[in-house]
Amino acid sequence: MIRYPSFLRAASLWAALALGALSAGAQETDMGAHLMIELNAAESQAEGCKLSFLALNGHPADLDDVTFEAVLFDAAGQVDQLTLLGFGALPAARPRVRQFVIPGMACDAIGQVLFNGASVCASASLAPGACTNDLELSSKTDIEVTG
After folding, report:
1. Is residue 73 pLDDT above 70, yes or no?
2. What count of other Cβ atoms lies within 10 Å of the Cβ of residue 64?
3. How far is residue 47's CA from residue 28's CA, in Å, rounded to a whole number?
């Protein structure tokens, strides 16, 4: 059996730990990159239901233009309408609020919003699936948000 000096064993252990930490850090960065959209508020108005979304781009680069195809289901779970929700530019690591009025529809008539896909997802440096891969959806209202 070969015996190594204690400083070499310590250096080897430190190098292994550092390499493991770098590898774990890289995995966290890749897995942490996503787009989060939360339905934060729904307010009935004379012209329709105003939906307020909070969006946070967790990618390392800006999203220049984002538009989602959304399906609105009524309270009974039936498709009511398809619409486009244009979120515009979403800078990296900066929250943005976007509001959309659904004309002629009361908020209590909406049971669910389904994000059916991204019709526009433009970025100078991100992969094409940046808007839909690992999309995190949530709601602080009685309206369910899925995707």
Report:
1. yes
2. 16
3. 44
What pLDDT score was predicted for residue 25?
35
Confidence (pTM): 0.76
The residue assigned the tokens 């709601």 is 139
DSSP strand pairing (63-74 vs 110-122)? antiparallel
HEC string for 91-121: CECCEEEEEEEEECCCHHHEEEEEEEEEEEE
Residue 51 parent element (H or E): strand 48-57
Chain position carrying tokens 């220049």: 64
pLDDT tier, 33 (very low <50, low <70, confident <90, very high otherwise):
low
Structure tokens, 11: 């250096």
